[in-house]
Amino acid sequence: MFNLHYRLERNAIGFVVAILVVASIGGFVEIAPLFTIDETVEKAPDMRVYTPLEVAGRNIYIREGCYACHSQMIRTLRDEVERYGPYSLAVESQYDHPMLWGSKRTGPDLARVGGKYSNDWHVAHLNNPRDVVPESNMPAYRWMSEKLLRTKDLGGHLAALRDVGLPYTDEMIANASNDAIGQANPDTDLAAGVATRYGDKTYVALFDADLSKVTEMDALVAYLQVVGRLTEVAHQLPQDEVE
After folding, report:
1. pLDDT per position as a tens digit, 25-60
2. 148: which strand partners?
3. Keywords of this protein's UniProt record, alphabetized (predicted)?
4. Which CATH topology does 52-235 take?
């Protein structure tokens, strides 16, 4: 075996051919499953896209590096399912650009955090994590409650996501700014447009309990409340494949 390797190292052309063969095998193993993706990805008729406010919150989540400490992928292992909830399905990530599966858990997995806690809990946790989880080493993000959310360019964000395949309509893009404000102000006329464009089950709420402004705290909490809830298919399928 070692003699073959030594001979290859002395033969430049043979060595290049060997590299190409090995790289081709690796590439085939990675690419081949994509030919059956229509058969392997689950169907989710109730799947919806992120609202503009949720998109903004997801962007903040990425900006602050939350994905570095929190994964969003529950594996098919019994202890993970019992701790976090139904294991993650491929279809749940089809509208995630970029995906935030992650691999490191300094904090818990967040794939099923949507709806698990109240808005007040999330605000308290983000303002000072130790107030609700004494052993937490997560940094505080209390300044988000004071920082106004930039909403004017959210239409551009939706348009960019449409360019990579997400089914945002012209109406969604044109009303992105108003929909972001409306989702965080349930008692205004703008809130009705959110339900019309994104569905009656869209969570419209006063996320940070402040009527006077829409902040980055509103956006981040709105995103956390929808993680794992763009579709309910994972909660409907039998979880009989856990190991």
Report:
1. 988 888 887 776 666 677 888 999 999 999 999 999
2. 215
3. Heme, Iron, Membrane, Metal-binding, Transmembrane, Transmembrane helix
4. Cytochrome Bc1 Complex; Chain D, domain 2 (1.10.760)
